[in-house]
Every structure is written in C-alpha cells, then in structure tokens.
C-alpha cells in the first residue's frame, strides 16, 4: 500500500529519532521504506546512505549516496558523504571527483581540503596531497587531522623539523593526545634523540586495546621487594616483533623474562611463558620501556642477555633474509634455521630474532635494515651499539653487501 505524504513525514521523524538514539538498524529500515515509496527523494536517499555508513555497510550505502548526490547537486554533505563511502570502498578517483564538487560548493572548508589530501595520498600523489593539507591549514591552522597527515608526509621524506613543528602545533590544542605524543616521540627517536623522545614514547601504553599487559602493577623504576617481570608488549608473543624485542631488549636488569615457546630454550636466565601463573611477581615492565626506566643511552647500552648456546664456529654462513644470496655464496654451506646459528662464522639477515641471537652470541652479523628501520637502531649505519659484532646495512644496498661478503 503506497505511503501518503503525511505517513512519509511521520516515518521520517521516527527514523531520525531512532538514528539520534543510535538505533541505526531500525532507522535504516524506515528510510528504506521511504525511498521505496519516493525513489527520487534526495534527502531520504542521503539519510539512508548515512545510516548504512554508520552500520559499516559501505557497499550498500554507495547506491543511495550516489543517487542523493545527483538529486542534491548543491548539497555539500551529500558530496562529502559520497566521497567518504567511495574512499572506504577504495574508489579513490571517484571520491576525488566528489570532493572536487564539494570544494566548488564550499571552497573555504578545511575538512574538504584535508579529505582531498588523504584521497590524493591514497592515490600516491603526495605532492598534490601536501598542497591540499597546506590549503586546509591555511583555512584552519590547528586542524589536527591535517597537521598529523602533513607531518607524516614530511617525515617520510626526512623533513624532521617540519614534521615536528606540525605535531607541536597539534599538541598545543590536544596536549594529552597519546597518539600525537607517541608520533612526536617516534620522530625524535628516529633521529637518535632519546633524551626527548623516550618519555613521549611511553604514550603508546595509554592507547587502549593495542598492546598486551599482564595483570600486575607497572614498574616505574622503584626498588622492589619481589620479582620483576619483563614482557614483550605485542599481543601475539610468537610474532616476529615480539621475538625480536625479547632477544634485543631483555638486558640490563635482573628479572624474569616472559617469552614465547620459540625462545624458551635460548635464555640462560629465568623465563616464564605467557599464560602461566605470575605468583610472586610484584611488578612488570614492557621491554620497550627499559631504555627510559633504566636511563639507557645509545652510547652506553648494557650488554645483551646471556644465551644458553655456545658458539661453535665453522665455515658456515647463516642466511636469514628473503633475498637470495649472491652467486658467490651459492656453493657454500648456508644455514637457514635458527637451531644451527651457533655453528656460523657469519650471519646475514633482516631485523629478526635469529639475527639478534647470533649477534648476542658474538658471531659476526650483518643486519639488513629498511630506510624506516625501528627507532632502536638509531639513524646511523655501520657498527651497532647494541652488539659489538653487528654491522648495519640498508636492505637495498646490494653493492655494500657484496663488498662485505667478498672473500667468503
């Protein structure tokens, strides 16, 4: 039975009330009935698309939003919501076109310029993206998303001062924002500025739902009457990052290390598995907080943890990187499994736990790090302060690696 205009108005009011109360499912059903009765009603199409966006049903939201944009050509929100939906679906070129229409309707809107920058960045058009962020910030110089996004672009090309300036401006408005503080800390740490960066880096622990923490008080460096637990903060303790952090950072203090089954037999000191009872422990600290808690500096790091293996040098070379070894090594006995690391005279590999284990054992080690290497390594290549036997090379420096391997 067709709906009368009065029924449509009543249904629309009810739908808006449901949406305002957070009941998007009921609101979606009501707006769908209105659209079925009035398929060319732009505002109803727009509202139907919006509630589907709220429900995370982006593919279903696209059709009513596209029709709404056609029926409401001068409605800025209709264009921007369509752009947001298309962005979620990975349709960045079409999203850019919708944003261009919105910008023509409202050229002084900072949010539209910011979203244009994000879309251009997704398309790999970083120079245009930066200009869009510049425009957004010329309209609203404290627009946090644009400041943060431009900081990322500047940092990616090594313009640390500009990136930090944007983050500092953002933090004036949101001084307690943990994500902004964490990003500022990471930028400082990547430049080797531990003195200023380590404190900001602790802001990561304020971001909920992203890291593991045991049910123990967090150690702040105070004297303890009882056992201290050190743990990797990654949710997956068997992940590459957790394994690497455990080998690299479990040093400098007497404590029990919470480690994975993979590393259980590698540590000479006391360990405990995740999930085992923590009776007798009075506090815990994430491994990545130790540089701050113990006042480490890159020039004065404690020695690596003692491992249970003993080097048994032979002619073997450990190879722990996805890249194939140079042709000159083809005839050599290459080790590719961690169990035989102690038999190697040289180990080459990515920033993974077997490579750290080799370096901790004092075996000559070449660590291949990306241009955006973990801040723990610092900005410099060459001999690493973390291990006397380790040397850092860029993972794309094939000539440098070939020279290092010459004569092997």
Give the helix tally: 16
Q: How do the strands line up in the largest sheet?
A: 6-5-7-8-10-9
β-strand amount: 5-15%
The geometry reads as: elongated
**CATH class of the largest domain, please?**
Mainly Alpha
Number of domains: 3
For the secondary structure, the number of strands is 10
Give the end-to-end Cα distance, rounded to a whole number of Å: 85 Å
Sheet with the most strands?
A: 6 strands, mixed
- Detail the poorly predicted runs: none
Overall pLDDT metric: 87
CATH fold naming of the largest domain: Serine Threonine Protein Phosphatase 5, Tetratricopeptide repeat
Helix fraction, binned, reads 40-55%
Look at the structure and name the CATH superfamily of the largest domain.
Answer: Tetratricopeptide repeat domain
The CATH architecture of the largest domain: Alpha Horseshoe
Main structural class: alpha/beta
**Which sequence of SSEs, written as H and E, runs from N to C?**
HHHHHHHHHHHHEHEEEHEEEHEEEH
Gyration radius, rounded:
28 Å
Question: What would a concise description of this structure say?
Answer:
With 408 residues, the chain is of the alpha/beta class.
What does this structure look like?
This protein has helices at 5-20, 24-37, 42-54, 58-71, 76-88, 92-105, 110-122, 126-139, 144-156, 160-173, 178-190, 194-201, 240-249, 290-293, 353-360, 398-405; strands spanning 227-231, 256-259, 271-273, 281-286, 316-320, 334-335, 344-350, 364-369, 382-383, 390-394. Strand 7, helix 15 and strand 8 (364-369) form a beta-alpha-beta unit. The longest helix has 16 residues, at 5-20. The mean pLDDT is 87. The chain has three domains: 5-204, Serine Threonine Protein Phosphatase 5, Tetratricopeptide repeat; 212-308, no CATH class; 316-405. Helix 1 (5-20) packs antiparallel against helix 2 (24-37). The chain is built from 16 helices and ten strands. The termini are far apart. It has 408 residues and is α/β, with parallel strands linked by helices. The protein has a six-stranded mixed sheet with strand order 6-5-7-8-10-9, with helices on both faces. It has a four-stranded parallel sheet with strand order 3-2-1-4, with no helix packed on it.
């Amino acid at each position: 039975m067709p709906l009368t205009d009065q029924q449509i108005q009543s249904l629309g009011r009810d739908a808006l009330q449901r949406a305002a109360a957070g009941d998007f499912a009921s609101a979606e059903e009501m707006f769908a009935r209105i659209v079925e009765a009035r398929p060319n009603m732009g505002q109803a199409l727009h509202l139907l698309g919006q509630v589907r966006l709220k429900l995370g049903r982006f593919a279903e939201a696209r059709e009513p939003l596209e029709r709404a944009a056609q029926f409401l050509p001068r409605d800025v929100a209709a264009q921007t919501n369509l752009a947001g939906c298309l962005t979620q679906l990975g349709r960045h070129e079409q999203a850019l076109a919708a944003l261009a229409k919105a910008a023509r309707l409202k050229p002084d809107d900072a949010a539209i310029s910011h979203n244009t920058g994000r879309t251009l960045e997704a398309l790999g058009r970083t120079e245009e993206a930066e200009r869009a962020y510049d425009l957004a910030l010329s309209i609203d110089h404290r627009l946090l998303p644009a400041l943060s996004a431009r900081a990322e672009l500047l940092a990616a090309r090594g313009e640390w001062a500009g990136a930090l300036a944007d983050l500092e401006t953002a933090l004036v408005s949101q001084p307690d924002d943990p994500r902004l503080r964490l990003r500022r800390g990471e930028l400082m740490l990547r430049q080797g500025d531990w003195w200023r960066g380590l404190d900001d880096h602790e802001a990561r622990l304020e971001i909920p739902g992203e890291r593991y923490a045991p049910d123990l008080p967090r150690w702040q460096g105070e004297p303890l009457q009882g056992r201290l637990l050190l743990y990797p903060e990654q949710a997956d303790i068997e992940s590459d990052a957790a394994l690497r952090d455990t080998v690299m950072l479990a040093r400098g203090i007497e404590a029990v290390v919470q480690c994975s089954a993979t590393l259980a037999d590698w540590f000479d000191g006391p360990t405990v598995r995740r999930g085992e009872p923590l009776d007798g422990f009075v506090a815990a600290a994430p491994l990545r907080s130790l540089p701050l808690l113990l006042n480490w500096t890159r020039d004065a790091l404690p020695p690596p943890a003692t491992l249970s293996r003993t080097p048994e040098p032979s002619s073997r070379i450990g190879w722990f990187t996805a890249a194939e070894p140079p042709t000159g090594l083809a005839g050599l006995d290459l080790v590719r499994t961690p169990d035989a690391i102690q038999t190697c005279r040289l180990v080459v590999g990515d920033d993974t736990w077997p490579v750290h284990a080799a370096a901790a054992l004092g075996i000559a080690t070449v660590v291949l790090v990306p241009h955006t290497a973990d801040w723990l390594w610092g900005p410099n290549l060459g001999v690493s302060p973390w291990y006397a036997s380790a040397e850092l090379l860029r993972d794309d420096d094939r000539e440098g690696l070939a020279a290092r391997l010459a004569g092997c």
